[in-house]
Amino acid sequence: MTTKYSLRTPLSVGILAVTAAFGLAGCVPTGGGGGGEESPAAQTEQAQEETSEPTQAETEESTPSEEASEESSPSEEPSEDSSDDSSPSGDKTVSSGSEDGDSSASGSEIDTTELEGEPIETVEGKGGDTVEVPEHDGPIVVVLENTSDSEYSYLYGTADHGAVLSGVDSGRTSVNFVDPYDPYDQTNTKSFEMEGESDETFTMSFYEVDAIPTAGPGDTITGDGFGVVHWDGDEDVTVKASHEGEGNFIVHGEDTEEGGGGTQYTFNEIGAGYGYLDIDTGEYYIVVEADGEWTFEPSSPEEADADSASPSA
């Protein structure tokens, strides 16, 4: 039978004290699952049964979900220099909203591989280099692209405070949400020491959080690998979340203003599959860590309940 469970934790957004209820229901594998390769930067946290690969710097002190520990996999396809995929700096006009909280075809399709506007700064370097992070107060978006000529290479970053910037294989890109608001121990990353061979190269771009695409009720959200979306919803909704990768699929909510409750985990699964996510009225950054294509599409509590009650394939 299809499993059904929920994680409902308040997520206060500044003085608004908005509550985010993220629920996971009907988590159904759709293909041969299995964790991706572990990197030299593995930074894991113990949960109940599964083990994860390194996650983003900002999730260092967060609590893992019910079934698996944090991990991350190589993420999005090349962005700025690739002809195959969208660039993080590409312009994207985003609209959101529908008049009802169930499935709707009236929304827009939001591509999280496309960030809005131009980066604050872009740095090119090689393994062993130290990259200075632009001065910032609060969260910042860091796009890391592995531009190495070698077919097999792996680069990741170690922050000055010890946390890890998730790594990428040759030709891959990750969109990282760094220094999220935290009520207990707010980080402010000053630099990254890039871990890799001296002949392995990278491009790192820094963006303001305003570059993150915005979505809301009725919208379909897509991504490939790591991604982040600014959710702004005026009603409670249910979305169906699908993952096509073989490694980890981790989803967590982050506050949009200082003084909130910190990171709140929802999905922490391994392999291809799908499930349902309940999102309460409010405003959040929703961060996805994955090693393949993923989609959030409008659904309804009724669809989630019916799916959970049906025998799995």
TrEMBL record:
Write out the biased-composition intervals (Acidic residues). Answer: 47-84, 111-121
For region Disordered, the annotated ranges are 29-135
UniProt keywords (A-Z) are: Signal
Q: Where is the composition biased (Low complexity)?
A: 85-109
Sequence ranges of Basic and acidic residues compositional bias = 123-135
The secretion signal range is 1-20
> Could you tell me what this protein is called?
Uncharacterized protein
Query: Taxonomy-wise, where does this protein's organism fall, top ranks first?
Result: Bacteria, Bacillati, Actinomycetota, Actinomycetes, Micrococcales
